[in-house]
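Give me the fold.
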Amino acid sequence: MAFNSRQYEWGDMTLILGGRDVTGIRAIKYTEKIEQEPLHAKGRFPQSIQSGNITVEGEITVLQSELIALEKAGNGSILGLNLDAVVAYGNPSLGDAMTTNRIVGISFGESSKELKQGDKFMEITIPFMALRVLNQA
C-alpha cells in the first residue's frame, strides 16, 4: 500500500442532512467540547484534570434555497427540526479513503436571514447543537 498525502478539498466534502444531499452548502463547522477543570489538592499544582459533560455545537452556512427546503421539512420553521447529518470527506475516484462523521440529533436554536445591497445571493449561517459526533471508517 502506497502512502498518499493528498489533503481533502472543499469539493471532496458531501453533507447529507436529514437524508438529503445538501448541494447549496457553503460552509460547515462542528466542535466537540468537554468540560475540564484542574483538581487542586496539596501543593500549588493540580493533581489531575477532571472531565465532565461533553457538548457538540456547530453551524452550517447554506444558500437561501437550502434554508427554504429545511423550513418546508419543519412545517415552516427549522426550530422544531431534529435531524442527523453525515459529513463525508474524500474522493474514492482519486484513491482517497473515505472519512465519515455522523452528527446525531442536530437541533437548530435560531434562524435569521440577511441580505444587503450589492449581494448576488443570500447566504445564511445556522447555528446548531447536537447530541454527539460518531467517527466512522
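The radius of gyration is 19 Å.
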